[in-house]
Amino acid sequence: MIQAINLQKEYNGTTVLNLPELSIEKGEVFGLVGNNGAGKTTFFSLLLDLIRATRGKVIINEIPVAKSEDWKEQVSAYIDESFTIGYLTPDEYFNFIGELRNLNTTDVKAFLEKFADFFKDEIVGKKKYIRDLSKGNQKKVGVVGAFMGNPEVIILDEPFANLDPSSQYQLRNMIKEIGKQKDKTILISSHDLDHVADVCSRIVILEKGEIVRDVQKTESTLAELEEFFTGVKKETSFIDEL
Ligand SMILES: Nc1ncnc2c1ncn2[C@@H]1O[C@H](COP(=O)(O)OP(=O)(O)OP(=O)(O)O)[C@@H](O)[C@H]1O
C-alpha cells in the first residue's frame, strides 16, 4: 500500500501539492489525471523520493520513503524528467536495469523478446544512444525498463505521450495484463482520460495540487469525469438518434 499523509510541496512559498490523506491499495491500477501544472509529476517525484516534501510523508508498504531505501526493491518507475541515461544504448540500459533487478543477460534477452512488436525493430540491438532515439522510442525504453524484474509497484508518468496510436494500444494492453495480477499496484499519470479510463480501476483528478475527484471506474463515473474535463454534458448524440 502507498500512503501520502499530510503531504505538501511548496516552491517559493506557493503550494503546488496538498494531499491531506491518500491511500493506494495493492492491486489498484491508479490513474492520475490533471491539466498542465496540476502536480502529477510532483506527486510521483515525492513518492520516489526524487524531491523532498515541504511537509508530511510518503509510506510505501509500511516503509517511510524519506527514511529508508528498502522500498526501492519493490518499486519501479518511469518519469520523463528524470530519464537522463542518454549516453547508453537501449541494450546497455536494459542490462543495467537487469543487474539492479537481479536478472542475468539471458533473462533480460528473454524479457525483451516479448516486446519485439512494441519495439518494431528500432530499439534492441541498435547502436544508437538513447538520447538519439525519437521521443516515442525513448519513452518505450523507459517504460519497458520499468516493467523489468517483476516489480510490485510500477509508476509511469505520462507513458502514452509521444507514442503512435498502435504503440499506445499495445501499451494499454500490456498495462491491463500486468494490472490483472492482484499483487501489483500501478500508478499512471496522463492528460488523456481515454487511456486512463481504459486501463485504470480508480481515477483521481488533480487540480492545482488538490484532489477534486476520486472515483472507482464505472460507466457513470466516466461520463461524470468527461463532463468535468470538457465542460460538456454528454447528450444523446446525433448518431445515436439515427
Ligand atoms: N523545481 C521547481 N521549481 C518551481 N516550481 C516548480 C518546480 N517543479 C514544479 N514546479 C511547479 O509545480 C507545479 C506542478 O508541476 P508538475 O510538473 O507536478 O505538474 P504536472 O501535473 O506534472 O504538469 P504537466 O502535465 O504539465 O507535466 C507547477 O506549477 C510547476 O511550475
TrEMBL record:
Record flagged with keyword Nucleotide-binding: yes
For this protein, what is any one GO molecular function term? ATP binding
A Pfam family of the record is ABC_tran
UniProt keywords, alphabetically: ATP-binding, Nucleotide-binding, Transport
Cited Gene3D superfamilies:
P-loop containing nucleotide triphosphate hydrolases
Which segments constitute the ABC transporter domain?
2-233
Key word Chaperone present in the record? no
Protein name, UniProt field: ABC transporter ATP-binding protein
The taxonomic lineage of its organism, from the top, reads: Bacteria, Pseudomonadati, Bacteroidota, Bacteroidia, Marinilabiliales
